[in-house]
User: Fold this.
Amino acid sequence: MRGPFAARKDEKGDLFSRIGAFLADQGLGPEPAHYNFAYDVITNPGGAIAQAVARLTDGGVRLSRSDIEKLGGTVVVGARVMEAPPAPPQRGLPDYAAQIEDEAVELVAATQAQVDDFATMMRAMQDETRGFGRDLEQSAAAIGRNVPQPQAAAGLDEIARITGSMLSRIREAEVRLAHATDEADSLRAKLAEANDTARRDALTGLPNRRAFDEAFAIRRDRDGPFCLAVCDIDRFKRINDAHGHPVGDRVLSAVGRTLADECDDHLVVRHGGEEFAVLLKGIDLADAAAHLDGVRGMIAAKRFRVRESDQPLGQVTLSIGVTAVQTGEMIADAFDRADRLLYTAKSGGRDRVCAA
Assistant:
């Protein structure tokens, strides 16, 4: 079977234009290192490198620097290797930008824990201060009642002055503590919102890759065996090219909403680009595949139209790879297996579920 970058022997005259188109699609300059990488991809479509490139770029996704380097290529600008951080991760591959984002989220979580402790401390101080002021007032009243009258004339005024000054300071402290507690509560609410935002996809409203990673670890350690599915919208680039990115965004949202509605007992996340991941618990592999195949058929049966013109959008389909996750299995191993099954589904004609 010919891959997307295949070049027949009788098409050698067109080889240079194919290489140029490949470089342009991937945002690569005409440096020799880039040319050699493109040449290897195009002239050996059945090779491991070309197969990996076809999988990574399916749907119009551009190769990242880390993708090219993992495949043995080199990304250069002129004669100098690029020092800029690589593009966002493709299909779960970590990179520098993702690492920085993860560190920022961890900092927010740590700050929230500190603010929670601070707010608790403020409330405790508030209660103690309020109680101390109340006790002081009661003690002053008791002194006035119990001190003999001749002695009261000599010292009660001074006691009252000192007590009044202390009560005034306590009330001021109570006001400041109340204000600090309110600020701590407000900051805690904002941090909680930031934590949720960091784990939610802005476009679809679904949980994102970070939420997926955290949920996977929890379910692996607590829930025992479960299933993992990777779902990808077929030929999504055609939708963007033909109708524009706003329409493509609406398709992404609609597909994500359908997946979430039909898998409401499970976790559905937008993993990146046009790719969704599903963690299915309490269900074996055969039932998981059957359920996802029903969702796939439901999406394929929808008749999407462009909102502004009512123009038919054409059929939107999903390819899905689903696998059973073993107890204690690492996320990278399970995801790679599901991703390979997804590629098998695409290679087999798309719009299908492949399970193993």
About this structure: Residues 9-92 form one domain. The CA atoms of residues 107 and 175 lie 31 Å apart. The beta strands are 76-77, 80-81, 226-233, 267-272, 275-281, 318-325, 353-355. The chain is about 60% helix and 10% strand.
